Amino acid sequence: MGSGKVLKQMSLSELKKLVREGEHQKLEFKLELPAKAKLAREAIAFANADGGSILVGVSDNGSITGLKDPDEAVIIFSRMADRHCRPRLKYSVSTVEISRNRTVVAFHIPKSNRKPHMFSAQRKRYGGQTFFRIADRSILASREYAEIMINLRDNKDILFEYGLTEMQLIALLEDRREITLSEFIAFSGISKKYAREILVLMSSAGVLRIQPMEKEDKYSLQDPGF
């Protein structure tokens, strides 16, 4: 079941060292295994960003309490990955026994080359949506991010013409380095639909780079070495 691989047990000293880092871009603590929707959101966010680990049995303040039934946690995670993540997630599992009847379970999700992964469910709050990890938070990603990532993943041939607006956008980004969708609309005076189309096309073609953000994504010129 699932795409998980069970690794050898992590040592308690290794776990404590990891926990001392606190939650960050690549590390999330959970005292108990959360609801499947929340769990999928966290896992998808890691896969769509730089990868990371979810430590279950560790509180937000770093207290290590462990779980009574680590096997159940592994089964639930596997079912979640199978049923609620599209494309399926790759992940691995390691455990840390902290006492005779308490164990911390670590789920390791690598950075994916098949992003965006999306939450798959019928009549669920997050069905069809995707997420991204920023610092210690998993955020709902924009429609623009999802569309761009799908185009890049599927290697779609994106063609567009450099019109006046596109050239002005490039000149602007050479000067100010980054821009949001609302800033681009204000600068160009074009409609949101047209502005969105330009940003998606130019990002999908590798001219621009999108940086997902909690409020508004930021766009910049792609590194020439891309």
What does this molecule look like?
The protein is α+β, with helices and mostly antiparallel strands and about 230 residues long. The protein has 2 domains: about 140 residues, Schlafen, AAA domain (Methyltransferase, Cobalt-precorrin-4 Transmethylase, Domain 2, 2-Layer Sandwich); about 80 residues, Orthogonal Bundle (Arc Repressor Mutant, subunit A). About 35% of the residues lie in helices and about 25% in strands. It contains 7 helices and 12 strands. The chain has a 5-stranded mixed beta sheet with strand order 1-5-6-3-2. It has a 3-stranded antiparallel beta sheet with strand order 10-12-11. Strands 4-7 form a two-stranded antiparallel ribbon. Strand 5 and strand 6 form a beta hairpin. Helix 2 packs across helix 3, helix 4 runs parallel beside helix 7 and helix 6 packs across helix 7. It starts with a strand and ends in a 5-residue tail after the last strand.
What's the gist of this structure?
The protein is an alpha+beta fold. It has 7 helices and 12 strands.
Keywords:
five-stranded mixed β-sheet, alpha+beta, 226 residues, 7 helices, Arc Repressor Mutant, subunit A, Methyltransferase, Cobalt-precorrin-4 Transmethylase, Domain 2
